[in-house]
């Protein structure tokens, strides 16, 4: 015969393992919080989404901001700074830009958000790559005859930033299904990458006259990065306000309903 003690034990175990009821999100709330349009696939086909995990998107944004902001300021030469000042940021590049964004991307992948996951992991890899290039422990620049002034060194960076221009342009197009703020981030960072690629390309060609002129273009790239910081910072604040359910919200320009998606067309 089942005792009262056994009944109480089963009741306690059910309470421990059942956990809290998941929060139901509307389509608009999902699009806003996770920066990705909700599709009609799998468990997202219902009117709401069962949110069982925390939102990793603000983590990715703030990790990006904490390294992109000082990098943009140095690139623009604020306070008399120059490229040598980037050496101070090697630690943040590794631990914030790299580790923070990759962790955010993995968490986005776990909850099924493909677009934010790919963006966060690739940007995290970018900061790790830049940290490795600049880290004197690896001595990458010292393998070239003229170190960072060597044409080969600068040509390699030109190709790197050129492909990043392509990648962020793709991100810009895909972000048009998300919101205006996120699209603004990728629009401006695409120009910044393009200007950086042009500057390193001229240095790699040994065209110092043009390269001197393009130093201003590199500073302009830093200005585009500053715009990116401002827009991404605004988006971060908007998501943080949403995360604590504040009584007011910052508009981000939702675009998820502006275009008909493939699922609806089919």
Automatic annotation (TrEMBL):
Keywords noted in UniProt: Membrane, Transmembrane, Transmembrane helix
List all membrane-crossing ranges.
Answer: 59-78, 90-111, 118-137, 157-173, 180-200, 220-241
| Principal subcellular localisation of the protein | membrane
Q: Which domain of life is it from?
A: Eukaryota
User: Where found, per UniProt?
Assistant: Membrane
Cite the InterPro entries for this sequence. AceTr, Gpr1/Fun34/SatP-like
- Recorded topology in the membrane: Multi-pass membrane protein
Q: Which family does it belong to?
A: Belongs to the acetate uptake transporter (AceTr) (TC 2.A.96) family.
* Protein name per UniProt: GPR1/FUN34/yaaH family-domain-containing protein
What is the species listed in this Swiss-Prot or TrEMBL entry? Lentinula boryana
- Upper taxonomic lineage: Eukaryota, Fungi, Dikarya, Basidiomycota, Agaricomycotina
